[in-house]
Amino acid sequence: MAKRGGRQHIPRPPSARLGSAPVWAQGDPKRRYRLAEVAAAARSLPQLEPHPAMPPSTRPAAVLMAFFEADGEARVILTKRPDTMASHQGEIAFPGGKFDPDLDVDLVATALREAHEEVGLDPASVDVVAEMPSRVTVAGRFLLTPFVGLINARPALHPDPVEVVSVFDVSISELLDDEVYREERWDIPANLGLGPEVGLDRPIHFFELPGETVWGATARILADFLAHLVTATPA
């Protein structure tokens, strides 16, 4: 297996320190979550408040956290952005992108359209079952809304090389592994360029996968959903 962690640029401040253990740390390390359990957890997410007002210069965007089941457990689809992109070069992300008022009737349509454009995911194959809270991305450019989607079989994916270097999937059991996840606490100065994240004692989430590091908004969305999945699913 490749070494855990990737070459993603992480602007870690000198004061960074280890954060809290996740809620799943005391759970069964051999637990395998099925797609039906993901669906039930997604449908039991707390009812959302109205979308927050967008800060000036912030644009709406959406991502699709798409799950399918293989070998008896749920897996989530992730992409890697090219180094040639204008921002977030080489980062691991969910399929997604900016809302286009000429193409999208709503943010669900944005997430599905972008997933189709980026990785060839057929929108008709996705059952969007939940919306998660919107959040401003670390650089403050987008108000990002995640959607949970279910696919009834492993999809055939074909990444657009302009937007995606690679597309891969990860099992929930791997994401919950003690060697994969950690939280750090950062005191974020303004000169790191992390926009609304500036402040003291901010939680920053990381998933160290073979050859790649998931962090930023993607890791925060994953950590939030996994925490809900673990607490909402009967043992």
TrEMBL record:
GO terms for molecular function: coenzyme A diphosphatase activity; metal ion binding. Its cofactor is Mn(2+); Mg(2+). The keyword tRNA processing does not apply. CDD domains: NUDIX_CoAse_Nudt7 (cd03426). Residues 1-25 are annotated as: Disordered. Residues 57-193 form the Nudix hydrolase domain. Residues 1-10 have a biased composition (Basic residues). PANTHER family: MITOCHONDRIAL COENZYME A DIPHOSPHATASE NUDT8, NUDIX HYDROLASE. This is Unannotated protein. It comes from freshwater metagenome. The lineage of its organism: unclassified sequences, metagenomes, ecological metagenomes.
